Structures are given as C-alpha cells and as structure tokens.
Amino acid sequence: MNEAFVIGVDIGGTKIRICSARPERPDRILYTITIPTARSFAQAQPDILQAIHILLEGAPVAAIGISSPGPVSRKKGTIGHPTNLHWSQARIVQWLTSLWDCPVALWNDAAAGGICEAQFGSARRHRYALYVSISTGIGTALTLDGWPLPGRHNSEGGRIHLGTDAASPTFEQISSGTAILKRYGRIARDITNKADWHDISARMAVGLHNLIVTTDPDIVVLGGGVSLHHARFLPSLKRELKLCRPMYALPPIVPATHIEHAPLIGAMRAALAEHYENLR
Question: Per the confidence metrics, is the pTM higher than 0.70?
C-alpha cells in the first residue's frame, strides 16, 4: 500500500499554493503547485482538486490542512469574506471531507504561520511567541507551547488603531505590503532606497511596539512577503523600537525560518494533530 501524504492548501488573494509532505515531517515540503485564486470558491474547486490529485499520485491522504485569510470559522469549517478574497462562507472543510476520509483542519493563515514558527522555526526554543505576518495585510498570532492561545476569534493585531479615534489608521493601513505599494508606488521587493526603508521601519515600529508592550512575548517572529526583505529594514526597525521607549528590554525580533511556507506547514501540522488524535 502506498505511503500516505499530508496535503497543505494555502489560500491567498492572488494565488493558492497546494503542497504535499510526509506525515512525520510536515516541515519538509515535497512538492508545491501554485494556481491563480479564482473569483469564487466554486470556480476554484476544480483546480484545487486537480492539484491535490497530481500531488497524491493515487496515494492515500493522512490529513489536509488549510490556511486562509480571516475571517475563518474553525467550528463551521468555513471561510467568511476576507478583505482580499472574493469568497463568501465557503464550506471548504465540508467539501474536502466529503472527498477524503481524513481530518481536514482550517486555520487563519497567521495562526497557521505561528504554529509553524513555534514548532519548526524561529520560535521553537521559546514557550511564548508573537508571530507577525507582514504581507498583503498584517496578521498576528500569539502561541504558547507551540499552539495559538484560545480565543473566540482570530487574533487581529493588524487592526489596532494608531491614533486617538476610530478614524485613525490601523497598523495594517500604514505598514502592510498594500500600504507600502500605495505610499511608494512600488512593492517591497522593488524598493532599494535606504531612506524609504527607514521610513517604512519607523512606521512599522509604532504598531509593533504596541503589540510587544501589550503581549510581552519571549520572542517576536516576522513572517509574510514583506519580511523576505528583512535585511533592508530589520536593523532600522530595532533602532526605531528603542526610540519608542519600551519599559523593558525588547525581546529578540527575528525573521521567520519559513517565511513563505509557514502557513502551509502550520496548517498541515494542525491537521496531523487531529489525525494522530483519531489513531489513539
């Protein structure tokens, strides 16, 4: 009998990544297929299904992990209506469960990234970590002993207001990849001017300072597409954070180990936890 695989599905505003891994090492992705994000869930289903079949090559599935921008409902297994995704109440867990008799886990993408970095990445030697994904938007997760802290909803640190009233900009509105493109006319990858990166760091420091003093983590891990360019802004960011006059010494602030694939790996790890629980 063929050895089973675990499948990861990372849904983004412009692309969906589907990958495979061995259950014993979900942090080692074997193969990845990337497809454009269809406008509706119904339109996306055939492409997702085809990609999974290609990756499996007839092998069984141990578990399927899904990461998606919020809001998501883990209880209902649905993706709500994310800001950068034109899907509404997509019943993705029910759909995949009807096709494969295995655990299917749906997680907010930042929470999944936090799981990955807490168990396999930059925070694996720390009990309590703050994971901040700086990408199209800004997502956050607080993990304790490898898993996100429980809550009624997903952590939304990117939505904190940086001002005195409701009209003040949010952290996401001044520091996300979307905000960078809007302010500088270029995506982060194409910005090489040191003065621009200093400005980006100064704006990023304000929101990050608020998260750090509120949560008091052992370590801060930066993920997401913008963090691919951490060499351009991290030294300046740390200097700017010190100017915010934190009450205590700053925790280590480091880039993620699995910057691009953290949500995939974390979602697969979470789905496997349900798989192994079922085997008991």
Answer: yes
Question: What is the distance between the alpha carbons of residues 216 and 123, in angstroms, rounded to a whole number?
Answer: 14
Scored b (16 or more CB within 10 A) or e, 222-260 reads bbbbbbbbbebbbebbeebbeeeeeeeeebebbbbbbbb
Give backbone dihedrals phi and psi of 25, rounded to 5 degrees, phi first: -140, 70
Task: Of 253, 232, 256, 257, give the one whose Cα is nearest residue 244.
Answer: 253
Among 86, 129, 87, 96, smallest CA distance to 110 is for: 129
- pLDDT tens digits, 177-212: 999 999 999 999 999 999 999 999 999 999 999 999
**Residue-wise DSSP of 227-255:** GGGHHHHHHHHHHHHHHT--SSPPPPEEE
d(CA 174, CA 162): 9
